Amino acid sequence: MTEPSGRRERKKAATRQKIADTALRLFLERGYEAVGIRDVAAEADVAVTTVFAHFAAKEALVFARDQDFEQRLTRAVTDRPPHEPLIPALHREVRALVRHCTAEDSAPVRRMIEGSPALREYEESMSLRHAQALAEALAADPRLSRSATACRATARFAIDAYALACRADDPGATVDEVFRMITAAWEATAP
Fold first, then answer.
1. Which of 5, 159, 8 is nearest to 72 (CA)?
2. Confidence (pTM)
3. pLDDT digit string, tens, across residues 128-146
4. With 0-12 CB in 10 A as exposed, 13-18 as middle and 19+ as buried, what is 58?
5. Exposed e or buried b for every residue in 76-90, given b needs 16+ CB within 10 A?
6. Nearest Cα residue to 34 out of 26, 43, 42
């Protein structure tokens, strides 16, 4: 995650992190459905309005690193060296993100998400937004020269590779398998 530069930004980031950590702890202790925003605010010692200043919805508390995730994916495209091909850079970043979601301490959170229709729906809407942002980064890169359709499909497949791997018995093999398909499709769309 990008480090905030000024004192005020650091304080806001610390408050946001405190709220997210408190919410996640409460959700895991009591169950997602049993905890309300007021409970989170009281436990974090902030006003309810402060919670909503940092998080648009209760579901967003579970996905506090959502923006960081999206930025990492788009930076895999935009910040790669001029000589580096796109698909290996994207593959490497998705693999790194999967390592985080499959870490041992992530299992209770994944179970909570899978057990909540509201969280699964929110996660799907995030995935669509991430795919859109990634597609826009792909389309904007003049080195790639692919159609909008190829960019949107590649972005969606990359996001799906992450989602499938986070639920797979062998996450690394899953990412690799999906990226073999992505590579073939990307090469087939070359002008």
1. 159
2. 0.86
3. 999 999 999 999 998 888 9
4. buried
5. bbeebeeeeebbebb
6. 26
95 or 107, which is more confident? 95
One-letter amino acid for residue 55 of the chain: F
DSSP letters of the chain?
-PPP-SHHHHHHHHHHHHHHHHHHHHHHHH-GGG--HHHHHHHHTS-HHHHHHH-SSHHHHHTTTHHHHHHHHHHHHHTS-TTS-HHHHHHHHHHHHHHHHTSGGGHHHHHHHHT-HHHHHHHHHHHHHHHHHHHHHHHH-TTT---HHHHHHHHHHHHHHHHHHHTSSSHHHHHHHHHHHHHHHHHHT--
Q: Which two tokens stand for residue 153?
A: 């499909």
Output the six-digit token pair for 92: 């490497």
